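Students often ask why we bother encoding 3D structure as a string. The short answer is that it lets us treat folding as translation between two languages. Here is a chain of 69 residues written in the first language.
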Amino acid sequence: MLTALAATPGRVYSRYELINQVRGYEFPGYERTIDSHVKNLRRKLGPDGARIVETVLGVGYRLGWSRDR
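And here it is in the second language, the structure alphabet:
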């Protein structure tokens, strides 16, 4: 998932788009599953995890980290 977000930093991906990027096909499961994966990814990234993987309310997620921060 981090690779998918990092491919285009700043671009907002919907949950549906992230599932398809990560799985590579139509995922028959519940799309809110991505929220759990984002939570785990943020935890692994440490204290700045929420700043690195940002939530865009009503849309999805984006990679918010840049080198100049």
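Translate back mentally: The helical segments are 2-7, 15-23, 33-45, 49-52. Keep this in mind for the problem set.
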